[in-house]
Amino acid sequence: MAPYSSSHSRLPMVSSLAVAFCLLIGLASLELTHGDELRVGFYLGSCPSVEDVVKDTVAKAFATDPGVAPELVRLHFHDCFVRGCDASVLLDSTPGRPAEKDSPINNPSLGGFDVIDEAKSILESRCPGVVSCADIVAFAAREAVHNAGGFSYLVPAGRRDGIVSNASEVSENLPKGSFNVDQLQANFARKGLSLEDMVTLSGAHTFGDCHCSAISDRLYNFSSTNAPDPSMDPNYVLLLKSKCPAPAPGSSDDPAVFLDVATPNNFDNQYYQNLKNQRGLLSSDQALMSRGDTATMVKSNALFGLIWKSKFADAMVRMGNIEVLTGSQGQIRRSCSAVNSNASPPTLL
Ligand code: HEM
Ligand SMILES: *[C@@H]1O[C@H](CO)[C@@H](O)[C@H](O)[C@H]1NC(C)=O
Ligand SMILES: *[C@@H]1O[C@H](CO)[C@@H](O)[C@H](O)[C@H]1NC(C)=O
Asked: Do residues 147 and 202 share a domain?
């Protein structure tokens, strides 16, 4: 590992003071904009069964349909990257104002909404007006990972729900499947996440599926070459072509394929193995092998699955911290799909 240089100690005193001053200002504004810190056990006094309720609800849904696990993990990601983890992704569109969930990036491919609604309705009957939808989404993502991969982690809570959801903000904030590593890195950096977090979290593509429309360019017309992406294993291309026929004009057929061709439902480190074998599904997945630093991380994650899992848990917690509303910001929604109307009674404390 490259030692960190201590070059700042050689800076003149004036610069050091300036740095310290900026740090203070930075911390102060962080305080103002982000309010309180999230914490583990936030609901112990106000709704102690919350994590058990989410656990049981996700386990029940998973038993009927394991596909809810990837849906819930992606739901948390799409919530956090757009306006922070404030459950804005759960709000329904209102007349003339399309919400995030109706952006073509989310509709029809995003799922898991009914699992969140189910948990919310149980929680509203037990502790009305206490548990935010944003926290339910974060807990549900953890349970999804737990059910599909057998490991769990502590989830700090105390998020509040936002009152704004705007469809156009989705494409501005989420990374695209066509991104190269530099673009992926910049996109995650905007959310305060490191290059390593980006590589670690991309491992979520070890389960779940993807619509053919997201990869048909890669299969049939990569960079307008009328040929498949040369960075993809030719046998994998053949397999995918058999499941994703060339888009016919006028057809709205859009089947789905597994993100992880080898162990599609398991939350394991197979994703990284696939990348080493040129079997990443999205261009953005395979791109991780195209730069030395990220390729080294991929190989290490392919080799050390347990270490990757623990890094994944830590990175999920950091992702769950993005631009959260806390304290008296936002509100605790009564129904996850709509902001509280003015007629609602004030939040019970
Ligand atoms: C690194 C940049 C990323 C890009 C470009 C990206 C893009 C995509 C795309 C295009 C799909 C397929 C959607 C469809 O058409 O059905 C997908 C699925 C998925 N993504 Fe990502 N994603 C990224 C990062 C992440 C992260 C950080 C997570 C979570 C931590 C995540 C979790 C998932 C999951 C679980 C699915 C499968 C969903 C399902 O089966 O319902 N992705 N992603
Ligand atoms: C939604 O977001 C877009 C892009 O950021 C912005 O131009 C537009 O004004 C927003 N719409 C509303 C109703 O705030
Ligand atoms: C391939 O992509 C280019 C650019 O998007 C487009 O002009 C061309 O018609 C495409 N070819 C086919 C066969 O779809």
From this structure: no
Assess whether the C-beta atom of 60 lies below 6 angstroms from ligand 2.
no
Name the domain count of the chain.
2
**167, 202: one domain:** no
Q: Are residues 167 and 213 in the same domain?
A: no
Within a domain: 323: no
Q: Report how far ligand 1's centroid is from the alpha carbon of 29 (Å).
A: 32
93: Cβ below 6 Å to ligand 2? no
Answer yes or no: is 25 within a domain.
yes
- Average pLDDT across each block of 10 residues of the chain; the chain has 349 residues. List them in order: 38 42 43 70 98 98 98 99 98 98 98 98 98 99 97 98 98 98 98 98 98 97 97 98 94 96 98 98 98 98 98 98 98 98 59
Q: Does 321 reside within a domain?
A: no
**pLDDT tens-digit readout, 154-185:** 999 999 999 999 999 999 999 999 999 999 99
Task: Calculate the CA dihedral of residues 62, 65, 68, 69 and round it to 10 degrees.
Answer: 50
What's the CA gap between 232 and 223, in Å, rounded?
14
Query: For ligand 1, what atom is nearest to the CA of residue 284?
Result: 5
Q: In this structure, is residue 184 part of a structural domain? A: no
Distance separating alpha carbons of residues 77 and 40, to the nearest angstrom: 20
Global pTM reads 0.90
Residue 205 appears among annotated catalytic residues = no
Of 303, 301, 266, residue with least CA distance to 285: 301
Give the range of the structural domain holding residue 276, as residue numbers without chain letter.
197-308
Q: Which two tokens stand for residue 3?
A: 């030692």
